[in-house]
Amino acid sequence: MRFGQLPYDLSHLLAGLVLLLSFVLLYQRRNRAVIAAFAAQGTILALAAAWQGWVQDAAGLFLTALITFAAKGVLIPTALGRLSRRLNLHRGVQPALGIGPGLVLGVGLVGLSVVVVLPVTSAAGVLAREDLAIALSVVLLALLMMLTRRSPVGQAVGLLSLENGVILAAIGVQGMPLLVELSVAALVLAVALVAGFFAHLLRDGLPPPVREEGA
Fold this sequence. Notes:
Layout: H1 5-27, H2 31-56, H3 59-86, H4 99-120, H5 126-148, H6 152-171, H7 179-204
Helix pairs in contact: 1-2, 1-5, 1-6, 2-3, 2-6, 3-7, 4-5, 5-6, 6-7
């Protein structure tokens, strides 16, 4: 199937929703809301992968969509929620930067992504160029979240969201080789890092969590 108007529009809609949920992650003040937003982002990413699988007639992308939904839409959010309750991290995300300044900086990072990606990919198709710009925006916003959150849950979700941006970039490139293997490897690496981080916290313990204002 060729890229037509409907595939173009829906691909951009799904990628845009993934980006929007990156801003939602930056906005949230509670760990429960962060985990819920991450689950929604993982689910939308799975839908984007499935849609690209149909558009590109690539069966591997359907497998990527299934793995993404199972891991990031269900299993990882459930595990993070249980760990959050066990470690008494269910209140604030403890931002190192205010929510407003963080969102403004996030908008600037999206602009930077567009400025960087579009000129250097002029030989690529319009859909691929814009999808790469959106994916880079998701990666940069995830890095921003990791840098501006003191909460272990916020930092872990930031790392996993960064991996979402990498997968979003990969599924937008038609004919990408070894996509399923790369997505699984990236997911395993991200989960291993997060699991090691929380294992360290469970072993050494945490200081009392900082309550949110008005909590």
